[in-house]
Amino acid sequence: MKKHLCLQVRCPVIQQCCWERLTGKNLAMKRAQPSFLHARENSVDRRMRPRPNTRVNLESLMSNESSRTSSSRSSSPSNRSPSPVQSEYIPPEAVKEESTVKVCLRLRPNLKNNPVRLAFRIQDNTLLARGSDDNSTERQYTFSDIFNDSVSQAQVYESCIRPSISNITGDRGATFLTYGTSGSGKTYTLLGTNNSPGIVPRAIEQVFVENSNLISPQPNLKIDKTTIQTLDDESVRDEINKVQAMKRILQNRDNSHVRMKSIIQKEHAFHPKEDPDLRVFIWVSFVEIYNENVYDLLAHDSIFGKRKPMKILSNEGNAYIKDLSCVYAGSSEDAYNILQFGIQSATYGSTDVNSNSSRSHSIFSMTVVSFSVVDQQINYSVYKFCDLAGSERLKKTGTVGDRLKEAQKINTSLLVLGRCLETVYKNQKSKKLAEIVPVRDSKLTMLIQSALLGKEKFTMIVNLYPTEEYYDENLNVLNFSSIAKQIVLQKKMTQKHHRSTRFSFFLAQATSSPSARIDGNRLMMEVERLKQELEHEATVYREQLNEKELENQFLRQELLRQELQLRNELTDDFESYCVQREATFQTRLKQAQEAAALPYKSQIATLNTKVEKLRETIMDMEYEEEEYEKKLAAYQDELRKYRDKERRFRRLSL
Length: 654
Known about the structure:
alpha+beta, three-stranded antiparallel β-sheet, 20 helices, 19 strands
């Protein structure tokens, strides 16, 4: 009866609503049930909330609202600024160019003596490609910059690399990629030679020259597994010893760094920055991806033993390599030595196309950690320089055996890289449900996924050998780069804050005063003075320690001498005691022998007497024996005579 009391109401609408509530036959609930035949409406999400058809950036609306409020406040007479600052106008083309991936093209010069027919032409920033067939269609590829075969390394660096490294505190970092066919000049562009340095030595020089006044002499801060780690004194000494050990192991060291440094300083104008509030720590790592295995080129076992593949892990969406050797570089010379140490362990091989071909993808990374003393804020930027192995065709490279396996792994990783770029471009272009970018299909894409997903600056230098011999391979490279040119970047700065403490609160209060910078400089001078005092005291303590060690050594020698003397005295005393005991025992032995022989002396005398009597008896018997022998001889003579007579008598009788 209670269930149907609501039906007594005369209003049919109320009756229908009550009936639907009691029976559970709500139409909206029916629509919410999952179905594979009837899809959900686009205006309703999974939680039955309205979803607009167009995307609205709420952050931009809030910023516009705040700007309107501030402008309305500034327009009042009391808040009007006496000298308003005019806003700088930025053309939309520049904004569009900065928001997309920067793709530059560099043509390799023809080093062969025989002339070849070029299949590519340059027109402004557009490359025109046409095959050997006259009826073939001409293709056009647009790049951020195109460098012909006469452009120097300095011009390439100024246009492609230098703008991305100018601000170490405001950027998340950048990834620089050299891509092209085998033998197109990728490694030359990245590393260069002693007389023509590549982009990596120039980037090292730029970072260290611009931050020469800010670099800390000791590695107190380190980014480990994408988290901040403060090093103690023992860890600091270990990090410094790593660089010294690499310098000792590195063979054939010459003055190439000094020569390259002078060349770079002549071709570029790097100016040091002045910011007493900032401290900079630079860490370097170097890895290679060989046969889809990641190897650490800075580990000591990469030279002296069998290398072990490393694992790639992820923390908060950022990929890192487990147990990767990250070495602190306090100067550009240290960074260059670390680079040379890693190059010695890299994998190279010979093919029909290139006699010194890279058989792996190598990634040289510089992590620049900046610490603000006043704001207690830490920023870090990671700059990756990737030297990709060249894409190859087996019929032209003639690879077999291990080289064939290497080429297959290289082409597979480059194929995955192209799929990732294509997926990112489709996701940014389409308004539908985004596809999953296959960054986990290859170790290379896992390490540079931040750049592929548009979270940091991405610059690609495409190297091309513009001849008809490699026309098909170059078309694949150009198609690959055309997709990368259209990816949009999402600028995001990586900041790490220390946990707020009472010290940081008082420090913020103290630094807000006008004399904060002066006090900060005074404190820094005081810290330097205290460091010098500590070093002086450490030197004094070391000298005292050396004196104590010498005294301890002298005391040890004296103790050894006294112990030796005591041992000799004990030996002499024991030897004399042994001699006395031996004499005593000899005397006692003689007495015992005499006492033991006394009872047998009388027996011996009696026996001797008997022996004498027996000797006399024997002599008598011998005499009698002689007499008997004489008688026997006489009897024998008589017997012989008798026989002779008897023989004569017989003869006479016959």
